Amino acid sequence: MSQPRQQLVLLHGWGSNRDVWRPLVTLLRPWADLTLLDIPGLAPGVESADPGLDSVLDEILRLAPEQAVYLGWSLGGQLAMALAARAPERVLAVVTLCSSPRFLAAADWVGMADAEMRGFRETAAINPGRALRRFDSLQVAGAETPRQLLRTLQGTRSALPGEEIVPGLDWLQGLDLRTQYSQMEQPQLHLLSELDRLLPAALAQALDTLLAATPLAETAVLPRCAHPAPLQAADEISSLLCAFLQKHNLLRAVGQHRQSLAKKDVAQSFSKAATAYDSVAQLQRDVGAALMSRLDGLAVDAETVLDLGSGTGYFQPLLGQRFPEAAYLGLDLAEGMVRYARGQHGEAGQWLVGDAEMLPLAAASVDLVFSSLALQWCQRPELLFAEFARVLRPGGYCVFTSLGPETLRELRAAWAAADQYQHVNSFLPVDELQQSCAGVPQLRLSLSVQQYQMRYGRVRDLLHELKTLGAHNVNSQRSSGLTGRRALQDMMQAYEDWRTQDGMLPASYEVIFGVVERT
């Protein structure tokens, strides 16, 4: 993906999860940096220590970029508007899909009858599954192919509903954001569906009246579409969203939230390195073996093991021996690595391309995450740990290694003596990992640090190894051109100051070992 032109936060509706956005994701990713969340109180299987609305809104803001456009479907649209009122400096614009500022009818507003909503809430308190099935039937009512749409909608869910989704109904009953709609200063776009039977047909006129004096507000209707609009009208939504943002000068080059690493470059670099990677991966093997030994002290009864950042699949046989009855999932950001691993290990497991900060896995679907020297490429640890909490079953573990900021300090110092550019990748420190995990109440994290050192006769040997591994500089702050011969010579000369008495050049690696427990 090229430099994103906007940050988008996508908020799903009640009884759904972030998978409802998948048809839109492929259309938005070429120009947007996406934050997708499974929202407590709305998403089946997503527990929260404090499911109150204020706490959920605060958690969304904690996980979201400093500034973003918010796109919310159904109840997610109400949450987006509530966030705009709560933190207007963080919300650049709001787009809602099939959403109303007030879900319940009132003397001056169209909506669901209060008695019907109370009955629905009472059913949910006794039997959440029955309530959700009834809600699904209302969502697809009016669709041209309701049975097919119902199957698609229910296929986006990975967990059975329980009492964890009841708070969302309380929010639907209580939220009345009409004042926030009419007083909002940021641009707002409200998309309704022509065939929506969950929301009244008169809502379009009611919104136009409510927003008549709000200059930056717009409404539009998606033709031939029912309530689950993200599953039916991805192309139309993407086009309308893009045009809306262009109109308000909100499609621009924006810096990614804390993104000092270009993920596209990371993926391409490791893809190119796949065939030769294992020939120079001694450090990776040593660290991985040490991480495997950390499993000895854990009571892990694994049915599903995720090898996160699986690379060439080197650890698949070892994990298979340790957990012979478990299903193995190898996942890597680099398509070339996944293709190579699949070719080497065949049907020994399932191989997926994916991002650790947005795993393409169901909630509570994994017992053990094993990740060796991969997580250093993640620059938003708060999303990473939120994903661990989502995909790990209660009692599950994640064991991982990552690189700390003191990694390759000799090479960094040598380059600093040669020019002003950043030539060595930057990695997150221990305290930032601890702080990010502390914000996810379902997780317990323990960390330790171990120093490793590789030794080389020439600087060129180190540079060749890094390039062969695909681990050379992918920082977005690197020089945009080729490094000059003079700068390279100056760097190699400066590196000579590190040569030891035995004639070797050291390369230090700060390796962080972590164990995450899902409570």
Automatic annotation (TrEMBL):
Transmembrane segments: none annotated. GO terms for biological process: biotin biosynthetic process; methylation. Keywords: Biotin biosynthesis, Methyltransferase, S-adenosyl-L-methionine, Transferase. Residues 8-150 form the AB hydrolase-1 domain. It is an enzyme of class 2 (transferase). GO terms for molecular function: carboxyl-O-methyltransferase activity; malonyl-CoA methyltransferase activity; S-adenosylmethionine-dependent methyltransferase activity. The keyword rRNA processing does not apply. Gene3D superfamilies: alpha/beta hydrolase (3.40.50.1820), Vaccinia Virus protein VP39 (3.40.50.150). It catalyses: malonyl-[ACP] + S-adenosyl-L-methionine = malonyl-[ACP] methyl ester + S-adenosyl-L-homocysteine. It comes from the Bacteria. The keyword Methyltransferase applies. Pathway: Cofactor biosynthesis; biotin biosynthesis. Its EC number is 2.1.1.197. Residues 306-400 form the Methyltransferase type domain. Belongs to the methyltransferase superfamily. Converts the free carboxyl group of a malonyl-thioester to its methyl ester by transfer of a methyl group from S-adenosyl-L-methionine (SAM). It allows to synthesize pimeloyl-ACP via the fatty acid synthetic pathway. PANTHER family: ARGININE-HYDROXYLASE NDUFAF5, MITOCHONDRIAL (PTHR13090). This is Malonyl-[acyl-carrier protein] O-methyltransferase. The gene is bioC.
